[in-house]
Amino acid sequence: MLPAASRLTRAEEFASVIRRGRRSGRSRLVVHLQIVGDTGAPPRAGLVVSRAVGGAVVRHRVSRRLRHLLVPRLASLPAGACVVVRALPPAAAATSAELGSDLDASLRGALRKLPARPVTTGGAP
Question: Where does this protein have coiled-coil stretches (predicted)?
Answer without folding.
Answer: none
